[in-house]
Design brief:
Elements lengths: L3 E6 L2 H7 L5 E4 L12 H11 L4 E5 L6 H11 L6 E5 L5 H12 L6 E7 L6 H6 L1 H6 L2 E7 L8 H4 L2 H12 L4 E4 L8 H5 L5 E4 L15 H23 L1
Parallel strand pairs: 1-2, 1-8, 2-3, 3-4, 4-5, 5-6, 6-7, 7-8
C-alpha cells in the first residue's frame, strides 16, 4: 500500500502550485478555522477543471450541530467531489451516536472522511471501539487532525506508539486512516513508518510554515521529493 499525499489549498492559484506533486487536492480555508469551507461556487469551478485528473476533497465547515451537518452534506454531495471531510467536533457521545444514525440513513454519492481531533484524546477509545459504526455511517477514511492550529502539532499530542495503536485499530474494520495536523517535513518519515493511507499537509508547504500564508511551490517540490524518498525507504524497511 502506497501512502497518498494530501495537500490543503485555499484557492485555485495554490492548486496550480501543487497539482504535479500531490495525490489529493483538499479544498480548505485555513483562515476560517480547522475545517473552514470553500464557497460552493468555487468548489464547482475546481471540479470542472480537475475532475478525473486528481482526487478532490473538500471540508464541510466548522459545524457542530447534527442537523446542520446533514443539510450541508446533502448540498455538497451533489457537487461531484471524491471526498467530503466532516469534522467530529462534538464531545458528547450521545450526539456522536445520533450523527452516526443520521448518516447511516443517507444514500450518498460521495465518500466521507471523518475528522477526529487529536485534542479530544479522551474520545479515542470510543472511536476505536465504535469504528464499526463509522463504517456503517458511510465513512471511508478516518483522519486524525489537530483542532487548535496555534498550538502544537500531531506528534506533540500523540506519541508514535499511540498513533500506531490508532492506525492499526481503525484499519481492523476496513477503514482507511489518515494523519494530519501541523506535520513538519522532518516528521514525515516517522509517520510513513505507521503505514497510514494518507498524510495531510499544509503548513509544511507554506511560506514560513504558516498555514495562513501562501503555499510555496519550492517547498511543495522539496516535500514531495522527500515524501517519495521516505516512502521507498519505509517500504524497504517493512519488507526487510
Amino acid at each position: 500500500m502506497k501512502t497518498k499525499l494530501l495537500i490543503s489549498v485555499k484557492d485555485i492559484l495554490e492548486i496550480k502550485k501543487i497539482i504535479k506533486y500531490t495525490d489529493i487536492v483538499d479544498l480548505k480555508m485555513p483562515d476560517l478555522g480547522p475545517l473552514g469551507s470553500w464557497n460552493k461556487k468555487n468548489i464547482v469551478k475546481v471540479i470542472d477543471k480537475y475532475k478525473f485528473k486528481k482526487i478532490l476533497s473538500a471540508t464541510l465547515g466548522n459545524i457542530i450541530t447534527n442537523e446542520k451537518i446533514i443539510s450541508n452534506l446533502l448540498e455538497f454531495d451533489n457537487l461531484g467531489l471524491d471526498y467530503i471531510k466532516i469534522g467530529l467536533f462534538n464531545k458528547k457521545i450521545e450526539d456522536i451516536n445520533k450523527l452516526f444514525l443520521l448518516l447511516k440513513k443517507l444514500n450518498l454519492k460521495t465518500n466521507l472522511v471523518g475528522v477526529f481531533f487529536a485534542e479530544n484524546k479522551n474520545l479515542l477509545d470510543f472511536f476505536i471501539k465504535n469504528s464499526f459504526k463509522l463504517k456503517e455511517s458511510r465513512f471511508k477514511i478516518i483522519l486524525m487532525d489537530t483542532l487548535n492550529k496555534q498550538s502544537g502539532g500531531l506528534l506533540d499530542i500523540f506519541s508514535v506508539s499511540e498513533l500506531d495503536y490508532f492506525v492499526q485499530n481503525i484499519k481492523k474494520n476496513n477503514l482507511k486512516v489518515g494523519l494530519a495536523g501541523k506535520i513538519q517535513s522532518f516528521q514525515i518519515k516517522t509517520l510513513l513508518s505507521l503505514s497510514p493511507h494518507l498524510i495531510g499537509l499544509r503548513s509544511a508547504v507554506c511560506d514560513r510554515n504558516n498555514r495562513n500564508l501562501d503555499i510555496s511551490e519550492d517547498l511543495v517540490q522539496k516535500v514531495s521529493d522527500q515524501f517519495k524518498s521516505d516512502t521507498i525507504n519505509a517500504h524497504e524497511v517493512a519488507g526487510a
